[in-house]
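Quick bug: GST N-terminal domain-containing protein output formatted oddly.
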Amino acid sequence: MTENAAPVAVGGVGGNDREEHPKIILYHYPFSPYAHKVSWYLNLRGIKYQECIQPPILPRQDLAILGITYRRIPLLAIGNDVYIDTTLILRELERRFPQGGLDTDPRRSLEYAERSNGVFPFAAGCIPSSLPIMRDERFVKDRSQFSGRSWKKEDIDAARPKALAGIRKAFEAVEKDLSDGREWILGNELSLADIEVAWPLEWVISMPSALLNSDITPTTFPKTFAHITRLKARIPDSKAAGVTRIKGEEAKAVILSYHTQQEETGNVGVTDKDPSGVTWGEEVEITPVDTGRANPQRGRVRELSGEKVVVEVVPTGEYHGKGRKALRVHFPRRGYEVVSRSAKGDAKL
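Here's what came back:
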């Protein structure tokens, strides 16, 4: 693959032929750093998808009409399966499209994913209070509700030194990883670990004035900046990758066209004696343990394991009885609470 050319679709993906691969729809907004992580991966792999652009703040009507109340972006629909959390999304794509996959060392790439998730709050803390969007009262109110902390100008400015110190440590860690002269995080070949490492750092570098009055520069961290530049050069932009946009109502129709009704009896994919006490078919609420807790997702359990929970969600306006159309929403167990609606108020993890 040449660095600036659009790649050929890997694994025989082609145009995501319906018979082989359900259509893929990425719900995101353009300046979401977590969305960059997923779009980078898709564009680098040459996996064809459409994007459904969302507003950066609530409400998001395109998701509401699907019955999705969970608020964090991005979400990825593959057929009528909707995946939550970027770590889960990328590993599901690796599973579905194994030929030419990037996850050459799953254990280490997951370690880097967790490290970057810890870095992101520091990156977000570097958002300058002078940015135009920070003068939008709706945005400030939305982010305060989402994060559980104040986004007032004086509070953002007061927290900035701590955020810069945290992001500097992240640059130091990557500089150390690359100190032996390697071009890529795991050695000589680009892998999923490179995406996992780079996304929060690239986001803060590209944000106007985010690193103002800091020593986080290409001179101080030459290997880290060069690594990010190298990675970005390998990733086609959305236009070169052939990404097209889709409206919310059309996306809903596409997703529900893949619906296959599951049997209403029998325990399908639910482990016995799960610590949550939840059983197959039970209505639950799934809530992140950190941010976005005011917007849990309801649904009926269809799969439950130590790694993942899948709930059936009936879109707004759809018939709820037998023969209904629905989607399956996938959450990782790590980082989320699963609570039975009948036992609301109990601490069930």
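Actually, after a second look the formatting is fine. Residues 106-234 form a domain with the Glutathione S-transferase Yfyf (Class Pi); Chain A, domain 2 fold (CATH 1.20.1050.10). Closing.
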